[in-house]
Design brief:
The complex is a heterodimer of chains A (about 300) and B (about 250).
Chain A lengths: L2 H20 L4 H16 L6 H7 L5 H21 L1 H21 L8 H21 L1 H10 L12 H24 L5 H20 L2 H27 L6 H27 L7 H27 L10
Helix pairs in contact in A: 1-9, 1-10, 2-10, 3-12, 4-5, 4-12, 5-6, 5-12, 6-8, 6-9, 8-9, 9-10, 11-12
Chain B lengths: L13 H23 L5 H31 L4 H24 L5 H23 L7 H23 L2 H8 L3 H17 L2 H6 L6 H6 L3 H40 L1
Helix pairs in contact in B: 1-2, 1-10, 2-3, 2-10, 3-4, 4-5, 5-7, 6-7, 7-10
The chains are: A mainly alpha (about 300), B mainly alpha (about 250).
Chain lengths: ~300, ~250
């Protein structure tokens, strides 16, 4: 068990009764409660993509940022012309990225079977999140017309089949990789426990609180820790303070950027909801982040595995 | 004449069934651990005695709980917690004994016992003093306090002193054994909160309608897995280490 898993279990056990005792929690209250965590711990894990990429590629920082912005702009363009494609692309890339960050430290190489596991694991938890909270997602679609276009993608039966199929495939791949000695028996039990706990968390906790707990504790903290150890080993940083200084600029830029967009919505300059705006922003920064992290993980775990990263 | 008072176990009552099998399994495990004590090296004898005591104390309580349940059809909450108050600290003693050779101090034992007592006393107040009909706030408050004790033991077993001492022991059998016991704490002990939350006012009771009739079933299954399983892991460590020692002595 990693400390992140321990922390996740502890938070889940303590949060469950408290959230239950609090009764019905509206979506806006959930947003209010989770946004500080997402901004403080979620955004920073993707705030040093430039540092990670430049560390292993001969490209100037300005060029990297330019390419990054082209990715962002392309994604926004997809959102404008085909929100459904943009939404599906966002979910698939997120699914792969979540799965990759969950398993990649076990493997030295990343053949197709491993990549398939990443994708199915991510699809399993995301489809689980949407299926278990189908009433909440439908109410969002009813309340905000921009989301109505995604309604056909959220049919209860389809979501259930997707969830069952992806979960079955995930469990099969975990067992297969254990049989092939890529995972130990203990790793297998731990990963089966983790996916069960994540799904229980999504089932029992309200939509945003459940997702935030997973995203911050099991995903962002893990990635931040890997980034910290990598940069520390490469003498890029000498202390935790140095790491904070490194992630601060783009974190602040992102946070103020989001606040700026929210301001424009407030002033009716932009005419869509806060939630839709946040979805576009998150998907736009996710797109290049997934590619950078894919490259980063390839380098990080291709050589001798570092036990402190596990 | 008392022998003629035959207890009738209803065929459709899995709780009564598990009370009886739990009692027999615990008793059988106790006898097994007592007798097997003679086959292991001296340094493991105390660990096996503690394993035998855990299952024996549980067996005696199960004997009474079985009767209580058949006579009243109610949860034997007080008996259950008396049993746990004795056996769970003894499980913590097992962690101490296993890591003693690697330098575990008596303070570790007291910290584990304190955490287990906090976990159990808070759980008992949460269950036994829950107002008639169930009070969610009461159940949640004491459930959270109890969980803090559990989280401390979980941390100690996986990352804290116990884990560090096991790693420092340079004994693969002890390392593996402590890790297996840590798994018991993680997965096996996690069944107890499910039972707790089935109580009136408990979270599973209110949300899903799982009633107190489910409580004993969960607790009986958990007890059988954890107490006998815990003892078997300790037995496994003791017997493997003893055989290794014998093999070494032969080759020397």
């Amino acid at each position: 068990m990693t400390k992140a898993i321990f922390f996740f279990i502890s938070c889940l056990l303590l949060l469950l009764p408290l959230v239950f005792n609090a009764g019905e929690i509206s979506m806006s209250s959930q947003l209010l409660f989770t946004t500080p965590f997402l901004l403080l711990f979620g955004i920073p894990h993707g705030a040093i993509d430039n540092v990670l990429y430049l560390r292993n590629n001969k490209i100037k920082n300005t060029h990297f940022i330019a390419i990054y912005l082209v990715f962002v702009a392309s994604n926004i363009a997809i959102w404008i012309f085909s929100p459904t494609i943009a939404y599906v692309l966002f979910l698939f890339l997120s699914a792969y990225h979540f799965g990759q960050s969950q398993f990649t430290h076990y493997f030295d190489k990343q053949p197709s079977s491993h990549k398939a596991l990443y994708l199915f694991w991510g699809i399993s938890i995301l489809s689980g999140l949407l299926y278990f909270n189908i009433a909440e997602t439908h109410s969002i679609m009813v309340q905000h017309e921009e989301f109505a276009v995604f309604s056909p993608l959220h049919q209860e039966v389809d979501m259930l089949y997707l969830f069952l199929a992806s979960t079955l495939l995930t469990v099969s791949f975990i067992i297969y990789l254990t049989a092939k000695k890529f995972l130990t028996i203990e790793n297998m039990f731990m990963e089966l426990l983790v996916i069960s706990l994540v799904l229980i968390c999504f089932y029992l906790l309200p939509f945003l609180i459940g997702f935030t707990l997973y995203f911050i504790v099991l995903h962002s903290f893990k990635v931040l820790k890997e980034e910290y150890h990598f940069l520390d080993s490469k003498k890029e940083i000498s202390s935790f303070k140095g790491f904070i200084q490194l992630i601060a600029p783009f974190t602040l830029l992102s946070v103020f950027g989001i606040l700026f967009l929210f301001g424009l919505i407030y002033l009716d300059v932009l005419t869509f909801s806060y939630g839709y705006c946040l979805l576009i922003v998150i998907s736009s920064i996710t797109l290049p982040h997934v590619f950078v992290m894919n490259k980063f993980y390839g380098i990080l775990f291709s050589s001798k595995r570092s036990p402190e990263l596990v | 004449m008392d022998l003629l008072n035959v207890l009738v176990i209803p065929k459709d009552d899995p709780i009564a069934f598990t009370f009886f099998t739990g009692y027999m399994a615990m008793l059988a495990a106790s006898i097994f651990f007592f007798f097997e004590r003679g086959r292991v090296d001296d340094k493991w004898k105390l660990s096996l005695l503690v394993s035998a005591l855990i299952t024996f104390i549980a067996a005696v309580h199960y004997y009474y709980m079985r009767d209580y349940y058949l006579a009243t059809g109610e949860n034997p909450t007080a008996l259950r917690y008396i049993d746990w108050t004795l056996t769970v600290p003894l499980m913590c003693v097992e962690f101490y004994l296993l890591t003693k050779a690697a330098g575990a101090k008596i303070a570790l034992l007291w910290k584990l016992i304190a955490a287990s007592v906090l976990m159990l006393v808070a759980g008992y107040i949460g269950e036994a003093f829950n107002p008639e009909g169930g009070d969610t706030a009461h159940s949640v408050l004491w459930g959270v306090i109890s969980t803090i004790g559990y989280i401390y033991i979980l941390y100690t077993a996986w990352f804290g002193e116990v884990a560090k001492l096991a790693a420092a022991s340079n004994n693969e059998i002890v390392k593996k054994g402590v890790r297996t016991l840590a798994w018991f704490v993680l997965a096996g002990w996690a069944i107890y909160p499910i039972g707790y939350m089935c109580m009136p006012g408990g979270w599973l009771n209110t949300a899903f309608g799982w009633g107190s009739e489910n409580v004993d079933l969960f607790y009986n299954i958990a007890d059988a897995i954890n107490k006998i399983g815990f003892g078997l892991v300790v037995y496994g460590i003791a017997i493997t280490a003893t055989e290794q020692n014998k093999a070494k002595a032969k080759t020397a």
